[in-house]
Amino acid sequence: MKEVTSFKEHRPTAIAVSQEGRIFTNLPYSSYSSDTHTNSVLEVLPDGTQIAFPDTSWNEKPNNFSKVDAQFINVQSLTIDAKNDLWILDTASPQRKGVIEGGARLIQIDLETNTVKQIVIIDNDILSEKSYLNDVRVDKTQSYAYITDSVDGGIIVINFKSREQRRVLQNELPLNDVQKTLIIEGISLHKAANFYATDGIAYDPINEIVYYQYRPFSGSAALMKVDTKVLNDFTLLPAGKAGSRKQIKEQVTFIGNTVITDGIKFKEGSIYLTDLERNAISKYNLETNLVTTVISSSEISWPDSIDFDAEGAIYFTTAQFHRLAGLNNGIDLQKGDFKIYRTELNGNTTKTSFKLKFAPHIGLTSLDDGMFINHAGKDPIKQIQFIAAQGFKGIEDNFMKIRPIEQQIAIAQELAKHGMELGSFVHNTTTWQDATLVSEPSEVREIILKEIRETIEVAKRVDGKYLTLLSGKSNPTMERQYQKVNFIENLRVLAKEAEKAGIILGLEAINGKEFPGTFITKITDAYEIVKAVNSPSIKLTFDMYHIQMENGNIINNFDTTFDEIAYIHMADNPGRSEPGTGEMNYVNILKHIYKSGYTGFIDMEHVNSIPGKKGEQVILDIYKNLNNKL
What we know:
Elements: E1 2-7, E2 15-17, E3 23-26, E4 41-44, E5 50-52, E6 75-80, E7 85-90, E8 105-110, E9 115-121, E10 133-138, E11 144-149, E12 155-159, E13 165-168, E14 183-184, E15 187-188, E16 198-204, E17 209-214, E18 222-227, H1 228-232, E19 252-257, E20 261-267, E21 270-275, E22 280-285, E23 291-296, E24 303-308, E25 314-318, E26 338-343, E27 357-360, H2 373-376, H3 380-390, E28 394-395, H4 405-417, E29 421-422, E30 424-426, H5 441-462, E31 466-470, H6 480-501, E32 504-508, H7 523-533, E33 538-543, H8 544-550, H9 554-561, E34 565-570, H10 586-596, E35 601-604, H11 612-628
Parallel strand pairs: 27-35, 28-29, 30-31, 31-32, 32-33, 33-34, 34-35
Antiparallel strand pairs: 1-26, 2-3, 3-4, 4-5, 6-7, 7-8, 8-9, 10-11, 11-12, 12-13, 14-15, 16-17, 17-18, 18-19, 20-21, 21-22, 22-23, 24-25, 25-26
Helix pairs in contact: 3-4, 5-6, 6-7, 9-10
């Protein structure tokens, strides 16, 4: 555990870490704050120095708190969304003396320019004078925000597109909660207000679920979850409202009793919690329902909020709220400064035992766009080392054939060192965009033989067995049936060479929408041709992204073509991004593939929808989550 920075007088509450590792925190102007309070939002520089953010003018204390201007009033929370924007939650309740009309706001800041993108005023009609907005999360599309209120309770939902806002789940208590008096370091907080109100909130971007817990002074350890589809559906009315078709309360799930916490965060199928009673950061595994301690220390005094950097390190604030004079007969029991700490996540490099042979790519559309390039850098050897550390069994590389020979050899050696294999790489890198394979065999025989012999030499160097074979373009001046005859004859030429070398060419159908003029666009045509060639070295590449666009019915087509499938490519549609970003139900698809007994590679042939290290971490989370559901 390493100290990042400290504060002598004013308590930090929230912590947010950007994709690039920039650290942000806030200092509320709350009931315990002195009049010396100035800065509300700070950026913590690498050396621990604190600077006002986004500038000093926003952080100047207003002369007239009844007037709402471009100045912070009382900032309680902040968060960074999937697109790397900072969102600041201003409660607009100076020293908690009442909410200023029109002052409660969400302020979105672009971290590339450090400028305000938008200010969203929170409607007065969903706030009371005593409301105290506590924590906020923004969904991955920047369409909705979810805010807890630690006085009035419930979740405030904001639709940024329609500008609709509402409060739901107010005064909806858990049925299975185990409530007790909160005692920290011998200090009993039984005299503190122990009413139920929402406090910590977390957002799972993979399954689009919101988790929340209650105000720690209530002594509740209950963890609740609700699907964002429920929260985002403004036609569903809160319980008790006239005309309600379905009570929102009925769609909330009690997950279990965890720990009494003030801040929670979702990561890799678990909820991480600031564990107040144990001076710790704990983890609740959503699958096993087990609570484990990540780190504990006497220095972790009322950990308030938690976040992760792109490397997986944990950042958290310590606020010592239980030592406030107002909770201890007027005696301030503060010990030392308030801190922000950083600690490595236990088990961060633990390998996942993947049940399917998922293979991340080290080059999809170029030599330098590896799937984990932000974690590992451009060197393919470093990328393989990172991929191996995550537990993957192989890699894909569309550009292996055009890499320098020394690099090909080094890649093969590195894969062998980790007990990994090479998935697929592209065979016809020179002819995939022309009509070579549909041309008269006698005219293109030498071209075809030269290309396959070059491929075989590469395959020997890299110990590769599986090659992607693209059909290339059709010839608009020739009848399609004649082209098909030529195509089959040319593939038989390839097959003879491939059989001698012990390699397999997987014919891939790619969609004609993005690749107009392509000869083979449908898996049905590819299957027909593979059957006609009738060679153990000419099989199918089952690319689910292209098949979804051209044929659909992934599971049915998988079953029908199963006997000829050499390996699989996967990406969601539309967008060719990671599973969960499009229309394909990859949980069901992969369950079906797993149960089929398929043991070949599943190349992760997609782009990352979220940039930077955080986007790469999302990829890891998604595949671990999919693996858990097989």
